[in-house]
Amino acid sequence: MKINEIRNELLNDMYYDIDHPSGLKILVMPKPGYASTYAIFATKYGSIDTMIEMKDGSFREIPEGTAHFLEHKLFESEDLDAFERFAKTGASANAYTSFDRTGYLFSCSGNFKENLEILLDFVQNPYFTQATVEKEQGIIGQEIDMYKDIPDWEVMFNCLRNMYHNLPVRIDIAGTQDSIAQITADMLYDCYNNFYNLNNMVLAVAGNTTVEEVIEVADRVLKPVEGKMAQRKIIEEPKEVKASYCEKKLSVATPQFMLGFKEDWDTPERTAKEEIAMEILLDMISGPSTDLYKRLFDANLINNNFGFEYFTGFGYSCVLFAGESNDPKAVSEEIKKEIRHFRENGFDEKDFERTKKKLYGRMIMGMNDIDSLANNMAVSFFAGEDVFTDFETYKTVTVEDIRELLNKTLDENYSTLSVILPNS
Amino acid sequence: MHFENIAEGVRLCTQNTDKFKTCRINFSMAMPLDSDASARAILPFILHRRCAKYPDFIAFSRVLDELYGAAISAGVIKRGEAQILSFSMTAIDDRFALDGDTVALECVQLLTDIIFDPLTDGESFPADIVEQEKRLLVEMIENEMNDKRRYALTRCEEIMFKDEAYSINRLGSVDEVKTLTPEKVYSAWKDVLRRATIQVTMVGSMDIEPVADILKSKFSSIDRDVAKIDTVFVNEVNQPEYICEEMPIKQGKLVMGFRTGMADEYDNSVPMRIAVDIFGGGTYSKLFSVVREKMSLCYYCSAALFSSKGVVMVQSGIEDINEEKAKNEILNQLSLVAQGEFSDEDFSSSIKSITDSIISNNDTPESICAWYSSQLLRENLKTPEAYVEEIAEVEKSQVIDAAKTIKLDTVFMLKSNGEVSDDED
């Protein structure tokens, strides 16, 4: 078993990077002085994985929302389900499905080893029957309906559907009433066998524990399986957006908007440096310290809920600006105008340094909580990085990088505006 | 935790620790919830973007950037019949400052600047700023309807507490906001500084003394006359009221409001918390395991105790046609808890789960701050450990007795009016 210690001097933090003989990557960050521990057992399988790779290398399509459905069903077992087992220990357990991963997690301030054993055990032991699948269709059906009434969610998926012709990031994580109706127990087993092998997964733990405790439980409970890191199919996507505008009516008071800029890169994933440079760029264009922000605010075009995100994952990357406004089109024009302004006039070095200083502080703030630490360790592993990569990378970003990035991205010819309007 | 009264009705509460990479400061100010709610609700938002020293909000925001991205947030909450204005600040611990800066103390200075030395225009706030913040507050109140789960809860509260101050929205009302003038808002601020019950809570590695000195000197010039805050606990329940409203939505929202019979915030509150948890708390609760898991009626169905008002609110998102089924089962499950129809295991699960989550509060500066600032109206602050000890002493029979006193008061159902269509491509 190979155990590496990964350290960061500035943060005075360290964690263990373990290649467990079972094939699982295990990451453990002990946090002395903490009362609780957080563990996440995750697989590189999310809503964008709508294709399963078959033995002959071909891909078979599976219904939208299957990853999320499987997440719900994995809690069940032939006798005590996982929630009932965690209830005996007092841990708080949960799970989530995102675009590119599924995570099972708990946090606890006592009985850590027992909880870790439950976590590793239930995720390794699927139990699906047609009857339990049908029962879940009612619960998830209500989850899907709930999201249909959440304007932030609708404005985002409408924006993604506008932007992408083919990429599965355009589909709802939970799927649709129709797609989940097609899911069967057999299908769940197929997906499970393909994506839930230990070589495609990671266990990340942070908090009141030791590496010995984690390894002891892992040695006992992990069962080596055949398998490899699942391959993601590269899906062809035109450079152009599918539609440049859409609107939908919902019962909201103020219209909501999301303005998206589609990007076109030669590689499927963005590097840490590209992501950090983009964070700085976006903050310099539209953060709370900018002229644009103040101008939009003073013109009554935005309120406290204005923000941006660099939205990236396997095969997709785009910039999203979102907020509430009585005139979304005017906001969109102002943002585009400001981008043109920076393209023509460049950036002030002082603004760049100040923004970088802010980013440094915000990164430090992100290294406090055991839940974000464990999640970041898992995400960094799937991205082929470690949790301290950003701290080394941000130092290397120059104002020249920002200029170059702006030349490659934020092109208004590839932008789209999604609007939610009040229906009365 | 260190407590110190630094002026009449002003408590400084500090936890000195280098466990975290950040420090957190919270300023909470409580006033009675009344018809001046909007005049006060607008204050934290006006104040937190500027001060006399940095009148322009871009300049102010850049000062925060230079403090390594220190973040200031403003908020207003309702706790019982108190309206609480709050300012919170998070900054990196001094040991991470790159050039030997003392970030934490500068943050305290900035926070006291916005509170005690705001940007003013004589005896009022600048008119253009007040106008802008009025627009923002109106949008904030109107946009509360966007979150249907929260909106349904708010509507149920408005109906259930129509004769009590608790029905007042924490932000007041749109009509009230529209009547606000710069002078009126300014005098509301003077009033808050004089009459609010105040707690400053800090977690981090900074020295307490200079902070206490700054605060003492600021408060020494204020003639404090603390307003009394009394929350009315109503225990009479007549025939439950039922109200149904329609909206163009996809999923129905059911809210059921109950009165617990608690005489005040402290009355039987620990057994009550456990009873409500077994009824509709964690995944082991009756509502999760039966209404969601067994009957597949919903994605969420849960009960929450608001001990500051002695009420329990049950919420669930359901298909409209399942309303009766869900309501009946929720009431049935409550009566089972009241009859003691829950296992020793359910009881111990609840105690373990509550204990675990309370102890976990020790692990972020935000949750430590929240734990203590939520007690600002209490005379004696309770540590998480002391609360856990109280929980451990509760017996099953006390929980059953507590559940027996929970009575249905109001049911609110938000239904679809049939005007929502699927428009997927």
Q: Secondary structure elements and their pairing?
A:
The complex is a heterodimer of chains A (about 425) and B (about 425).
Chain A: E1 2-8, E2 13-19, E3 25-30, E4 37-43, E5 51-53, E6 59-61, H1 66-74, H2 82-87, E7 92-97, E8 102-108, H3 112-124, H4 130-148, H5 151-163, H6 177-181, H7 185-195, E9 201-207, H8 211-221, E10 245-250, E11 256-262, H9 272-286, H10 291-298, E12 307-313, E13 316-324, H11 328-345, H12 349-365, H13 370-382, H14 389-396, H15 399-408, E14 415-422
Parallel strand pairs in A: 3-9, 10-14
Antiparallel strand pairs in A: 1-2, 2-3, 4-8, 4-9, 5-6, 7-8, 11-13, 11-14, 12-13
Helix pairs in contact in A: 3-8, 9-12, 9-14, 9-15
Chain B: E1 2-7, E2 10-16, E3 22-32, H1 37-47, H2 57-66, E4 71-79, E5 82-92, H3 103-116, H4 127-142, H5 148-160, H6 174-178, H7 182-195, E6 197-204, H8 208-220, E7 241-247, E8 252-259, H9 269-280, H10 286-294, E9 298-306, E10 311-318, H11 323-338, H12 344-360, H13 365-373, H14 384-392, H15 396-404, E11 407-416
Parallel strand pairs in B: 2-6, 7-11
Antiparallel strand pairs in B: 1-2, 3-5, 3-6, 4-5, 8-10, 8-11, 9-10
Helix pairs in contact in B: 1-4, 1-7, 3-8, 9-15, 10-11, 11-15, 12-14
Structure description:
The complex is a heterodimer of chains A (424) and B (425). By secondary structure, chain A is α+β, with helices and mostly antiparallel strands. In chain A, the strands form three sheets. Chain A has a seven-stranded mixed β-sheet with strand order 1-2-3-9-4-8-7, with helices on both faces. Chain A has a five-stranded mixed β-sheet with strand order 10-14-11-13-12, with helices on both faces. Chain A has a two-stranded antiparallel sheet with strand order 5-6. The radius of gyration of chain A is 23 Å and the shape is globular. Chain B has 425 residues and is of the alpha+beta class. Chain B has two domains: 219 residues, Cytochrome Bc1 Complex, Chain A, domain 1 (2-Layer Sandwich); 176 residues, 2-Layer Sandwich (Cytochrome Bc1 Complex, Chain A, domain 1). In chain B, strands 1-2-6-3-5-4 form a six-stranded mixed β-sheet, with helices on both faces. Chain B has a five-stranded mixed β-sheet with strand order 7-11-8-10-9, with helices on both faces. In chain B, α9 packs across α15. Chain B is globular, with a radius of gyration of 23 Å. Chain B starts with a strand and ends in a 9-residue tail after the last strand. The chains are: A alpha+beta (424), B alpha+beta (425). At the A-B interface, α2, α4, α5, β10 and α10 of A face α2, β5, α4, β9 and α12 of B.
